[in-house]
Amino acid sequence: MKISRRQFHAAVSSAALVGASRHCHAESVGPLETFVPCRAITRGPGHHWFGYYDKHEFDPTGKLVLTNEVGFEGRSPTADDQITVGLVDTSDGDRWQPVGTSRAWGWQQGCMLQWIGRDGKRILWNDRQDDAFVCRLYDTESKSVRTLPRPIYTVSSDGKFGLSADFRRIDNLRPGYGYDGLADPNVAVRAPEDSGIWRVDLETGRDELILSLADVAAIPWSDGKTHPEAWHYFNHLLVSPDCQRFIVLHRYRPKFDPRSLQFEGGFVTRMLTADVDGRNRYVLDPSGHTSHFIWKDSQEVTMWTKPAGMNNGFYVFTDQTDQVRPVGHDKMPVNGHNTYLAEPYQDWILNDTYPDRQTRRQTVYLYHVPSGRRVDLGHFPSPPEYKGEWRCDTHPRSSMDGHTVAIDSPHDGGRQVYLLDIRDVLNRFG
Asked: Which SUPFAM superfamilies match (predicted)?
């Protein structure tokens, strides 16, 4: 008899936790090493983390740092698991200030908690309310909360609109990145016309479907086929700095059973860009290997991929053209979560690695593009139990002035948030 993914996790989670505590002594874990000032700004007994690397965690002053708080680790979240969202005031003894809760979250991206715009007055996160996933907007001055009718994946830099994706479908086809608790009405539809990407006005809450899965499934892939037998979904959205275009990864699973929610094999990926109204669609990376990416500016995108005839690595693509050039292949040889520091340090790429095989340490580093210089900021051990869906990637995020980096790390008794002071590196090598 087949069981669903959620049933499987519920059955094995307690055994996995016991086994992990025994297994961690069998695998070698290297020591913590830091090369810049580093300190924890959260502490137990709760576990704290932010989530993804491409969102604003710091307010404009750099003093208020957003985090999620949860009371357990080591298993998939269920529909009943609630986390607390809040901020740490680093100017007041790292005081933790809760601002709300969420029942729509995952280990990798949290609940999309982030600052909106650049005035430090609004915070956004996703939640579940009745039979819908929604978005909460918190006003730091009035302490009031508004609710938008759709969850938000990413926001424009001017704070005027966000883009929403179908987290029910993501939960089925990419476990760990969607939200549990709501059934997908299109679970048995391979490329639904009423599921896709919505543009949401953050002031009025008005939403509009700007790109459907049916739309992109009809675009031939690099092999000339449209793959009507496949199961399509969207993941990983990001608006360009000038708020004119957006990126999305269009992915499909070759085989999926909508009754058991089980699939076979991996997924296939291509990167698309489009205007923020869904028009002028362009397949920027058709290789099938697109991974982590970031807008370098409003015309160029830096990503880990493997363009046709080239090796795996980081490349800079120019939007709506076939122009591609490598970046940092000798100093950034493995996949990581890459961003650029803010002006005037935009020549620096902030990046990390996954745990290496020998010591299970994750390295956080800076790469200076003009000089080709790499500066490691630290090596952070990740115990063996942090694997799969509930792993704890460092996901480095920088403050708006570029002086401070925040990471998530489980190296000291559970995942917590740490700050790295990189001012000396910038002064010495910038």
From this structure: DPP6 N-terminal domain-like
The residue behind tokens 């991996």 is: 266
Omega into 31 within 30° of 0, i.e. cis?
no
Which has the closest alpha carbon to 162: 174, 150, 173, 172?
A: 150
Q: What is the dihedral of CA 329, 332, 334, 336, to 10 degrees?
A: -130
Render pLDDT for 60-79 as a digit per residue (tens, 0 to 9). 999 999 999 999 999 999 99
Tokens of 425: 């590196």
Cβ atoms of residues 334 and 354 within 8 Å: yes
Q: In degrees to the nearest 10, what's the CA dihedral of 11, 14, 19, 20? A: 110
**How far apart, in whole angstroms, are the C-alpha atoms of residue 128 and residue 339?**
30
Single out the residue of 196, 205, 260 nearest to residue 234, CA to CA.
196
Contact 179, 126 (CB under 8 A): yes
Of 49, 102, 108, 100, residue with least CA distance to 79: 102
45 burial via Cβ count (<10 Å: 0-12, 13-18, 19+): exposed
Predicted TM-score (pTM) above 0.90: yes
Looking at residue 345, its pLDDT comes to 97
